[in-house]
Design a protein that fits this description.
By secondary structure, the chain is α/β, with parallel strands linked by helices. It has one domain (8-143): Rossmann fold, CATH 3.40.50.2300. It has 6 helices and 4 strands. The protein has a 4-stranded parallel beta sheet with strand order 2-1-3-4, sandwiched between helices. Helix 2 links the parallel strand 1 and strand 2. Helix 2 (22-33) packs across helix 6 (123-145) and helix 3 packs across helix 6. The protein is globular, with a radius of gyration of 15 Å. The chain starts with a helix and ends in an 8-residue tail after the last helix.
Length: 153
């Protein structure tokens, strides 16, 4: 793992279950914090972009409304899976990435990230769960990639 950290990746794929909350958040944060590193996202399956994710990201000035969820297979067909690093945010995405790396030369890191979808409670309590995911991803990205290059979030 230390060798992977020594060399900064040029292209990072963030992956989760549905590509509708965690991975789109991570890509948006990564693009703002490290614009020189190419970032994309995919899911094991395809969901719909979550409105709570849109709201949580807009609170910090990020517009993810143009994000279109896609699967690993759709991403492969669209642009190929040419990534140095695949960061998985859910167990199913991690298993899928490990399958793919049998034929891809990419490192895989697992960042267990809770899925805030479907939590009970008021709108504010639900939104707080999305904020916690957003803030946790921001911190992980900062720690892994060494701090923001522009100070942007």
């Amino acid at each position: 793992m230390e060798a992977a950290r020594a060399k900064a990746p040029q292209a990072v794929l963030f992956a989760c279950g549905l590509n509708s909350v965690r991975s789109p958040m991570a890509v948006s944060l990564m693009q703002a914090m490290f614009p020189k590193i190419y970032a994309a996202s995919a899911g094991v399956r395809k969901g719909e972009l979550d409105p709570f994710a849109v709201t949580a990201m807009s609170e910090i000035g990020h517009d993810i409304t143009r994000h279109r969820p896609m699967t690993f297979e759709e991403l492969d067909d669209w642009e190929g899976l040419n990534f140095d690093l695949i960061v998985t945010l859910s167990p199913e995405a991690h298993h899928k990435a490990l399958e793919l790396t049998r034929t891809l030369a990419a490192d895989v890191e697992y960042w267990p990230t809770p899925d805030p979808v479907g939590l009970e409670g008021s709108r504010e309590q639900q939104l707080e769960a999305y904020r916690a995911v957003r803030d946790g991803l921001m911190e992980r990205i900062r720690m892994r990639f060494g701090g923001a290059t522009r100070g942007a979030v």
